[in-house]
Amino acid sequence: xxxxxxxxxxxxxxxxxxxxxxxxxxxxxxxxxxxxxxxxxxxxxxxxxxxxxxxxxxxxxxxxxxxxxxxxxxxxxxxxxxxxxxxxxxxxxxxxxxxxxxxxxxxxxxxxxxxxxxxxxxxxxxxxxxxxxxxxxxxxxxxxxxxxxxxxxxxxxxxxxxxxxxxxxxxxxxxxxxxxxxxxxxxxxxxxxxxxxxxxxxxxxxxxxxxxxxxxxxxxxxxxxxxxxxxxxxxxxxxxxxxxxxxxxxxxxxxxxxxxxxxxxxxxxxxxxxxxxxxxxxxxxxxxxxxxxxxxxxxxxxxxxxxxxxxxx
Length: 313
Prior knowledge:
alpha+beta
């Protein structure tokens, strides 16, 4: 279940209280008059089921409480309450299937920001993937796939496309367009150092039986990317984040990006081109599948407020 907290101007508090009191999926309604200092007003709290949270947030935004006050929502891991159990039973649907669009926009917007840490994680992942390819070590390549942070902007791009949020699309596109070339250039520079010290030679890339999936593009490349994108978005919307690890291991984005740099450095342009195609196929497949999952979600709605509100800073 979820904990809702609203800082409300006094003139709107009765409407907020009535809204939550009438909601079957709400429990433990609390009103603290005058408790809010900045912005000044009242504090209204309640426990919500995931199934009703999206509709409640939409109604609160209609009251402009996101502008005149503050709306916060957080996940409760444990709730021991008969009233909360009754609220859960009163709302149709399953909590795992509920999409909370405002939460999804905020999370995807936050994870799609281009930052030093994002660049560092992607670069380290590419370097690990390059070493895994050079040494023909699938274990190292899988480790690089888990470390890669690229699913964040890919998910944000899918959310932006479905909600027609240009800000999310631009932010995610910038993160992908800048981070991958930077990581690939750094990987190429490190590869040149490996070459200069004899750790990397052209013949090293002749026999890569264990990691040839990096540059071998086929129908399954797209199929795997589509399945991974769908699973990843389902994981985000249902709050089952543990499934994201499987998504990271499935998608050949980081290894393909790293191998483009390594193969180009050694003059293996055929494999560099194949790896680049593999990268594009995986990126496109993940975004398309993630967007389709959102589009056909049981909780799908085209709310103008969600489209216009901020995306996590």
